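Subject: design request, 286 residues
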């Protein structure tokens, strides 16, 4: 596939961010002309074709892959996930987007409810938000104590080393959007209840609380065995393409030879008679 991708040093960015007070991904503040839809469709079609090849390789080799998507509100996590999964099988590429934990789940080991969704052989699991909720929204919005958040940041690299040592490929993406662009997106969604929730409204005014939480998270959990990759998502089309291209570059895969499929002859009626009855048909409105 493409040349080996350059790793984003998210940990170093976080260290610099804590000194300067700026975001961990300064590239998200740069102005670029947004990609036109026609150009985007040309690129995404090719990349999605490569994802189908990767899917066949994952199934043949029994690979187990986890993709974690985290980031600012409105950063476009859902759009990236949709672009990845649009042409592949949902039995192989499975999306996990968990609701708020139940009272029973709150009493469990924190990571326990995520473990049940981990991949078996031949599966790619995409977490639309993940165990990193503890380091982000739960910490900022007061759903966990500061002690619990700090304990999570201490233990998370230990858990993730265990995940990687078990043979699972763990890939983590942080989608970064500038403050101005996030504000623009919030304003564009303000009257659409599908795209903005009461929690989003509260989060919209806490930019720097989320910045501090993000910096601590990247600093504590950007490891050699499970690094973070930061995606500039001010242009959502470019973000989708860059993320898919990078993901493909991380998994060495080959074309899987498939036997040519030949359809057999159609079965003969052999006395079958269509039933004489009236069915309830869907009205042909269109």
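Subject: RE: design request

Done. Sequence follows.
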């Amino acid at each position: 596939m493409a040349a080996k991708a350059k790793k984003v040093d998210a940990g170093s960015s976080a260290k610099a961010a804590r000194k300067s007070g700026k975001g961990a991904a300064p590239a998200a503040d740069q102005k670029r002309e947004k990609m036109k839809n026609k150009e985007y469709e040309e690129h995404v079609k090719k990349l999605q074709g490569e994802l189908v090849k990767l899917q066949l390789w994952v199934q043949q080799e029994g690979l187990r892959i986890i993709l974690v998507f985290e980031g600012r509100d409105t950063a476009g996590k859902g759009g990236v996930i949709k672009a990845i999964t649009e042409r592949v099988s949902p039995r192989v590429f499975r999306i996990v987007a968990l609701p708020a934990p139940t009272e029973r789940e709150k009493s469990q080991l924190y990571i326990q409810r995520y473990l049940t969704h981990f991949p078996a052989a031949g599966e790619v699991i995409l977490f639309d938000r993940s165990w990193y909720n503890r380091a982000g929204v739960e910490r900022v919005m007061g759903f966990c104590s500061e002690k619990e958040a700090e304990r999570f940041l201490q233990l998370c690299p230990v858990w993730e080393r265990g995940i990687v040592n078990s043979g699972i490929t763990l890939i983590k993406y942080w989608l970064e959007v500038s403050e101005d662009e996030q504000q623009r997106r919030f304003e564009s969604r303000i009257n659409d209840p599908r795209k903005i929730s009461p929690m989003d409204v509260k989060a919209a005014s806490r930019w720097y609380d989320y910045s501090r939480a993000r910096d601590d998270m990247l600093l504590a959990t950007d490891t050699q065995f499970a690094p973070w990759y930061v995606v500039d998502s001010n242009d959502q089309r470019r973000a989708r393409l860059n993320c898919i291209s990078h993901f493909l570059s991380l998994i060495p895969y080959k074309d899987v030879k498939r036997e040519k499929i030949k359809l057999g002859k159609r079965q003969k009626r052999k006395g079958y008679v269509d039933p004489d009855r009236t069915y309830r048909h869907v009205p042909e409105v269109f």
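The chain has one domain: 10-23+36-250.
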